[in-house]
Amino acid sequence: MGMDPTTPQVACFEAGIKFGSLYHQFAGTPVSPDSADSLAAAIEEAIENQPHCESVTVEVREAPLREAIAAAGADYTELTGRFLDVSMVIDYEGCVVETSMAMEDGYPLMQVDSVSE
Amino acid sequence: MGMDPTTPQVACFEAGIKFGSLYHQFAGTPVSPDSADSLAAAIEEAIENQPHCESVTVEVREAPLREAIAAAGADYTELTGRFLDVSMVIDYEGCVVETSMAMEDGYPLMQVDSVSE
Amino acid sequence: MGMDPTTPQVACFEAGIKFGSLYHQFAGTPVSPDSADSLAAAIEEAIENQPHCESVTVEVREAPLREAIAAAGADYTELTGRFLDVSMVIDYEGCVVETSMAMEDGYPLMQVDSVSE
Amino acid sequence: MGMDPTTPQVACFEAGIKFGSLYHQFAGTPVSPDSADSLAAAIEEAIENQPHCESVTVEVREAPLREAIAAAGADYTELTGRFLDVSMVIDYEGCVVETSMAMEDGYPLMQVDSVSE
User: Fold this and answer.
1) pLDDT at residue C105, as a whole number
2) Burial A74-88 (b: 16+ CB within 10 A, else e)
3) Minimal Cα–Cα distance from D91 to chain C, Å?
4) pTM of the model
5) Which of A10, A15, A96 faces B2 most closely, judged by CB atoms?
6) Given an 8 Å threshold on Cβ–Cβ distance, is A49 in contact with C38?
7) What pLDDT digit, counting tens, does each position of B60-102 carry?
8) Residue B90: is it exposed, middle or buried by C-beta count within 10 angstroms (0-12/13-18/19+)?
9) Which domains does chain B have, with CATH numbers?
10) CA-only gyration radius of chain B, Å
11) Where along this sequence does the record place binding of substrate (chains A, B, C, D) (predicted)?
């Protein structure tokens, strides 16, 4: 039998929504080292619009981005998780959730880092 | 001070990821009454690929879809939340989370319906 | 019977690709008056990465954006065509195509404004 | 000095819009061999809604999809151009444009195959 969610559980749900939104809204965007900063800034400000979203920090990882572009003999590539470091703070009714996405064993992993009481 | 997340909290985070992914991957897709069923089926099967996602049910709400198309004097419109009813079951390490998105007061609301122990 | 495309026809095809990319990559992005400028800048720089794309100018139309947000009693909304003015210059093998998207009769219309010889 | 576009040029512009739309709407979608058919069907029907679009044929290329999933030790991956074969017919005011996207030298290439008079 399921129970109604607690406030911290809803806070984690809200945090997940922001991560899924961020990833699937912007994955596929054409990106190069020159355009990486404006994209990171836009992602941060776009997702911070969403409810309960205190702050979003996005960094485009320049080394793997340059490698992927060089390997393809291209000038740009498409944004995907391995080019991103993201951290986010959600505050839902006073419960603060810290989350991040970073590379682990070669794959981007979204995780909850901490939940306040 | 933040604590490590509990299993039910991570399960809710995973549920949120799926909702954000679903919404921001498919919002904006050209949709008409004739193409609604294939889109709903594709959304279900695409999101069910994601980790810990037991089942996804998507229904395109035909009445508001037809109204929006008629009001615009068009043949199709772009998918957005008010044309969708979604329910989803996440199972993360044995913790089952039921979630849904439906219209409330004129806006699509994503919510956690229940969390198992 | 179909013929091989001419250079100006391919230039117009390339211009269309950029418009479809721009629209469907960024439609659905959470946007508010405060985040409109960073989003416009990111769209410009992202699409300028694409081949044969000389320049992209994006302006978020603040009046309809503010009206939509106020009408919804919200703090932000989702990006869609009626909040955007876009102009773009494509140069394909010396053939320059100027294109734009703007509101016409209440709908966003993408069009070719001129093709050089 | 630029000239007004001809009907075949506008037809090619319209064809480009559909390709950019298709790619950037659906790139990033979670996809596996089991969900490939429903996704291909939804893409076809969604893009066929757009103006002047006579037909869209999408095939997910199963061999590279299976290889990418196996190489990642995963159950699914994200849709990108190298998993897609697409052909499309646009009819704009009687001018028929045939276009396709397929792999060339390791990269997905969108091209105009023929333009009718």
Assistant:
1) 78
2) eebbbbbbebbebeb
3) 12
4) 0.96
5) A96
6) no
7) 999 999 999 999 999 999 999 999 999 999 999 999 999 999 8
8) buried
9) 7-116 (3.30.1300.20)
10) 16
11) 14, 110
